[in-house]
Every structure is written in structure tokens, then in C-alpha cells.
Amino acid sequence: xxxVFLHGLVEASLGLNLPQEIQPVLESYRNQHATYQPADARYxxxxxxxxxxxxxxxxxxxxxxxxAATTFTATAPELRDRxxxxxxGGYDQFVIQLVPGHESALEDWVRVFESV
Length: 116
Known about the structure:
The protein is mainly α. The chain contains six helices and no strands.
């Protein structure tokens, strides 16, 4: 759920906001994040299970709409269109994270990139 920090980065560095409909979810997550201990290293609790799964206390923040608005989780044609839009916006690199046990996803991503 590093979306909280992504949102802050987007606001601070680019002057952009994430979709308005997810603002209440982000605010709720910020409130939960403020309870993480130790207070001077909240990232330790936040990143437990990072790229491995969702912690039970964070499941309530996830919905199909939230995932679609904050990740590249979509069909291959939708991914292709979103990556094209990034290119048209000036981006020239796109990074994917493969997690252990899902190495075959690289082939799926190659097919998406070949169609961009």
C-alpha cells in the first residue's frame, strides 16, 4: 500500500492528484498508517508482506475500483493503451516487478510491450 506515499509524491512533485473517488480510501489508510509503530519507522510495518500479499488490516482498503485506479492490473489491451498513453505523455521507461513464483509473467508482459 505504498499508494499513500505515491499520492504524496504525485501531489508534491507533479502537482497532480489521484482520482477523487479514491481520496476517502487514501485518507482512511493515512489514519491507519499513523498508528503503525515504531512512529519513527512506520515503513517497517507498512512494508511487511510487500509484493507477497496483503496484510489483513489492509484488506478493507482494496476494491476492484481502487486496484484499477492505482495499479497496472487490467486486460492486455487495456494495459497496452495505458502504456501508450504514458509514452504519449513523455515517459520512455516502464518497469515491472516480477515476484518469486511468477516468472512466467515476463512472457505475458513481453506480449503487451510488443503490441504497444
